[in-house]
Amino acid sequence: MAKIKLKWSAAVVMVGLLNVGARAEIIPELLGFKNVEITKVEPDGIRVSHKDGVAKIKFEQLPVEFRKRFAFDEKSAERYREETKQKQDASARLHEVIAALQEASFGLEGRILQVTDGGVLMIGGNFTLGRKVEKKVAEAVGRQLGTGTALSPESRTEYRFKTTWVQPSSYRGETLFVVCDTTGLTAGGRFSGIVFPAGTYSYDSVGGDRKTVEQWTTFPDMFTRREGLDDLPGWVIESIEKRLPGFQPIPRLPPEQGEASSGSVATGTGVVISDGSFIVTCHHVINGSKNVSVLAGSKTYPCLVVHSDEATDIAVLKLVDGKLPAAPINRMGADVGEAVFTMGFPNPEVQGTDLKLTDGSVSSLSGVRNDRTRMQITVPVQPGNSGGPLFNMKGQIIGIITSKLAAARALKESGSLPENVNYAVKATEWFSMLERAGCPDPVLGGGKAPLPDLVRRLRDSVVMVEAK
After folding, report:
1. Measured between alpha carbons, how far is 233 from 238 in angstroms, rounded to an integer?
2. Which of 90, 270, 331, 391 has its CA 20 to 30 A from that of 456?
3. 278-312 residue pLDDT tens
4. What angle do CA 79, 81, 85 make, to 5 degrees?
């Protein structure tokens, strides 16, 4: 076992790690790593950030003193490792099924012969099944424009785009049946959609013969259930639709009762984390919405809601396409009196859509009625700041802006109006849900800098959330 050099005691480290709101202590050297900060305690070890990156250290590598102080239990560690392996195996299986699903998806369009049995029957010669592929075809090559030199003639090649079909090699029949939503479909009408193989379908022909033909479906879960996967992530459907443009989109589940159906738009703020494709915001910003997107600069990015929790008032979004600069997270807490700031998009209809900065300090490590999931801050916030990041002066996210003390209620109960009493959900309360949302390890790091420098560093990680 490598020799462990500790210049600060393990007890000091524990105080920094386990006391809510205390700052994490820095260990000058541990197992050869420099400037080590413990970022997460797991049943089988600790995760640390250090001068050159991040690392996972198993408890077996640490002295007995550390194991006792972190309440290391060998059985719990073994159980945790087994559960982690099961999750990794399930993730690998998911990606195998996703690859098979994407490979099996095709576009179908043509004329309907008959609407029956929860689907449509289509006869060969009246439909096309395959993938549309756009190819750039040269229309005129090296056309002389009458000027230039012999070595460098001024010429131009004009191109046009031509759409061709690529037929699936697996399809051999002349007739097929498609399981689909038949609303609005009639015999003689047109069908267009993305389809997946779904076994066979038998029917009686006009002549009384029993025929069996290939069956396809617009519902991907009919395919994935055969592969042992019941819950298909929404981003997979989006990726398939992007591969097969020009067809009707894959059917979604109907909205649940109680979902917002009006055309109103709610706005809030969000912050980009992890690999640049995930965004944290507030549950109440997107709750009841059918379509969620974020505005970054002048570009709008559609999003999927991959996790939302009413109790913490936190939601995790995923960009359908593209990535944005991510901000680092510090889940170790804050101190009362610590300087903090937020950036966001308050009242965009009145104040405009430019990013707004407000700063202040942490005034308490609890919220209303000693709610330990919140911290009270003096940072001024307005409607539209909800979901925005609360940064420390290292440029690390330590919370998410969620609410302000209700003035009318406070006046009724205390006889006075509250002034600048606002709240943020501590990062310690929602950090664990990132893994459940499928979010890769968040970005660590950050460093002290003057506020204008921090704003320049972080402004591209803060986005406006639009929920319809």
Report:
1. 9
2. 331
3. 999 998 899 878 789 999 988 999 988 888 888 88
4. 115
Q: Are 366 and 405 in contact (CB under 8 A)?
A: no
**Residue 395: exposure state from Cβ atoms within 10 A (0-12, 13-18, ≥19):** buried
Give the domain CATH number at 286.
2.40.10.120
Q: What is the pLDDT of residue 22?
A: 37
Residues 240 and 250 sit within 8 Å (Cβ to Cβ): yes
Tokens of 9: 């005691």
Residues with Cβ within 8 Å of 152's Cβ and at least 6 positions away in sequence, in order, are none
The angle formed by the CA atoms of residues 17, 65 and 330, to the nearest 5 degrees, is: 15
Helices first, then strands: H and E counts in the chain: 11, 24
- Residue 375, pLDDT score: 92
Question: Which tokens go with 410?
Answer: 């406070």
Beta bridge partners of 283: none
- Do 310 and 222 lie in a common domain? no
State which of 115-119, 131-135, 278-282 shows the largest mean pLDDT: 278-282
Answer with the residue of higher pLDDT: 1 or 270. Answer: 270
Radius of gyration of the chain (CA): 29
Instruction: Specify whether 57 is located in the same domain as 138.
Output: no
Which tokens sit at 71?
């309440």
Shared domain for 322 and 205, answered yes or no, is: no
Checking phi first, is residue 24 left (phi over 0); if not, alpha (psi -120 to 50) or beta?
Answer: beta
Domain identity same for 213 and 275 = no
Residues in the chain: 468
Question: Worst-scoring range by mean pLDDT, 18-32, 49-63, 151-165?
Answer: 151-165
Give the alpha-carbon dihedral of 18, 23, 26, 27, to 10 degrees. -20
Q: Is 107:247 a contact under the CB 8 Å cutoff? A: yes
Provide the number of structural domains found in the chain: 3
Do 354 and 373 contact (CB within 8 A), yes or no? no
- Alpha-carbon distances, residue 39 vs 63, 332, 374 (angstroms): 19, 7, 20
- Angle formed by the axes of helices 74-104 and 234-243, nearest 10°: 30
pTM above 0.70, yes or no: no
CB 264 within 8 A of CB 270: no
Q: Determine the structural domain holding residue 232 and report its residue range.
A: 106-143+153-243
